[in-house]
Amino acid sequence: MEKKQKGNFESSIHNEEYYTRFDKRNLNHTTMICTCGRKTEKLNGLWHYTVDQYDVGLRDNWHLPKGINKDGEQPPWDFHPEQGETAILPGCWNVIKPQYFYFEGCVWYSRKFLYKPLRKQERVFLRIGAANYDTKVFLNTEFLGNHYGGSTPFFVELTGKLKQENELLLCVNNARTVDRVPMRNTDWFNWGGLYRDIELIRTPDIFIKDFKIYLVPDDTFSRIAFSVEVSDKSIHDSVTLTIPELKITEEFALTNGIYNGTIAANPGLWSPDNPKLYDMEVCFRDDMVSDRAGFRQITVKDTEILLNGRPLFLCGISVHEDDVFMGKASSRDDLQRRYEHARELGCNFLRLAHYPHHELAARMADEMGFLLWEEIPVYWAIDFANPVTYGDAENQLLELIHRDFNRASVIIWSVGNENADTDERLGFMGRLARKAKSVDPARLVSAACLVNHEKIRIEDRLTAFLDVIGLNEYYGWYKTRFEELEDLGRNSHPDKPVIITEFGAGAKAGHHGTINEKFTEEYMEHIYEKQIGTIKKLDYIKGMTPWILYDFNCPRRQNKYQNGFNRKGLIAEDKKTKKKAFFVLQKFYREKRLK
Ligand code: GCU
Question: 412: domain CATH number?
């Protein structure tokens, strides 16, 4: 006779199927809603948290009520939502205390909140700005679903499930696995946590679910395209678009809940030198969303990148989301400092590597006049043959595009970084590139490709799917024969623009020596001088984003100069101490911007 298993504990320790119950991945780009200009109620602040290295919470159903069970017994429990330690969210658990720095696994966050309806038939959504990596959401002991992806926002509808007092329980798992995006091997720190805003959003019963607007890239600079989608496909009502400064107030009829169309307009064109933005509103019945967006055209012609029809050179720098105090969390001040350093360098462009950065980054770039490369973390040896992994990558791409579509500063969607040119990778990333082009006709698509080192030239089958070729090359660092960069230049004949998306060298700030001593500032400075001297002679290179603005946390970098940091930053991890190479790049960009 099979031994009757008692309670949670005994049944759970023999069950390794526990994960699938909580892995619906139902929170994805299809469940996103438009939040532009909506009032939100922040749930940031003090949360309880409990680390859970063995997934005990999922095995033992920590989300279920504590107390008397169905057999009338009160078994002991190892977790109580209000008895954990507390931390301020948004934030990364790695920086809360030293013993959690390298923690990888599940952390359970919980807090209570009060809810009172503000109008009849309102709908309520929880929005998480980002959580790394798999986030399972429980409300009042009910599992509502989970989201995959460490750097994009997601939504959970709470309508009809809210009481006066509610308990939210979020289980965040940052484990590195071979089938995630990124997979388990990267060159950056695996921060964990709910590290961007947590907020509630209320909407009318039928509401504006999506609103996209852009300048039609037809070289006339005289037509604005915009689309609105409402939450109910049966609606044939109308919406109104208002852009006061352009004297636009137009009503448009929805068909099956959607309007897609263009209107004549002559907006002042957005550019880094003139970051002109327009306030706009979209109204539908008693719902209204608003945005502050710019109009610009970004296209390519032969090997030129054209902004508003004029060729430009992208004077850029790469950046990670990484901070010694905040981990992967961002603040307006941190982003302001990033852009001020980029301005001081003479940049008009930044590569937000290797994953979607905080949405504030693009909003501030819109205001301050920086062009942006945004990227999904299809990084290195992704499980390219796995259709589930593809679905994860595509979902992250679509969530990023949904979030930042109206941001004029974003000119390039990158579908990945440094992936070997295999058939599976070509299929996977070619499909991502086509997907990006199909949902966004107003931007360029690229990827950071590798040099074909056998032929010493730019040759990667993925480039056929790209508008702009990104190229990472480390001549003078990983490739010791620097003269090969000259060979690469001569051997390559790309028919589209190339951006050198990475070059660089490591140096510990304050460590000095000769130009032949790796990890000295002088070595790094010399590499920048040689790289720039060579790159500027290649007329198909139309931009560069050297690696990288700041030193950053990186577990794989452990020699005596690195001590857990990647030291290719032009500025040390204190985000203050500049290295000599900073001024080499600054000089080049100043000359370039004067031309
Ligand atoms: C690669 C990679 C970066 C990495 C850099 C380095 O090109 O794209 O993520 O940090 O090289 O080795 O420092």
Answer: 3.20.20.80
